[in-house]
Design a protein that fits this description.
mainly alpha
């Protein structure tokens, strides 16, 4: 369960870091129709219950779902397998990186990037040498929040995984299973481990927040 949690968290953090940066840069620096609509979509995971989101993914990616039927015909299982659990985790953690970077980018403004262009830098060079250093603490804080939420996610993952023992149980689902089976020692042992991890993450978040405020 902890091994599965690790890989889901790692994949969700990597993908949401990439998508979060892309979303933030696009929403701050680009002008296009429907921009407010897409800004609202970023916050959708905050408004939708994780359980409801899980059922939505079953309707989409389940064996008889709108998209899942096509994958099933090709021998690819989404729901009740690792891909479905990853999709659910990515959905519930999507806003964190983007929402931490967006206000930093707006405060930073375009002046330094424009100065880099005048000095001959390409867009790629300006992005890595000017934009990324300016958002580093917001990015780090968003990544930390993503890690914390990925580790502790329960509702959406419970629905899409089926909580199959030794197959699709994350750490939180394992704790739930042990508790419902009246194995309180096993449940509390796993819970203590997650609590220790949460404490370390919280400490890191506080330090990153202070560094971000100083900068």
């Amino acid at each position: 369960s902890f091994y599965l949690t690790f890989w889901i968290t790692l994949a969700a953090v990597l993908l949401n870091t990439f998508f979060g940066i892309v979303l933030a840069v696009t929403l701050v620096k680009q002008r296009f129709r429907g921009k407010l609509f897409f800004e609202g979509l970023v916050d959708l995971p905050f408004a939708v219950s994780p359980v409801v989101a899980g059922f939505m993914f079953i309707l989409l990616f389940g064996p008889n779902g709108w998209i899942g039927n096509w994958f099933e015909s090709g021998g690819i299982k989404i729901v009740y397998a690792f891909p479905g659990m990853l999709i659910a985790t990515i959905f519930v953690t999507l806003p964190f990186v983007a929402r931490e970077i967006i206000p930093v980018l707006r405060e930073f403004g375009p002046e330094q990037e424009e100065a880099a262009y005048v000095l001959g830098a390409s867009r790629w060079q300006a992005f890595w040498r000017v934009t990324i250093p300016s958002i580093k603490w917001g990015l780090a804080y968003g990544v930390t929040l993503t890690i914390a939420r990925s580790i502790g996610e329960f509702g959406a993952v419970l629905v899409v995984s089926g909580s199959i023992i030794n197959k699709t149980q994350t750490a939180t689902l394992h704790i739930h299973q042990q508790f419902t089976d009246f194995n309180y020692v096993g449940a509390f042992s796993a819970a203590i481990f997650l609590a220790a991890a949460s404490f370390l993450i919280l400490t890191a978040m506080q330090r990153l927040y202070r560094r971000k405020e100083v900068d």
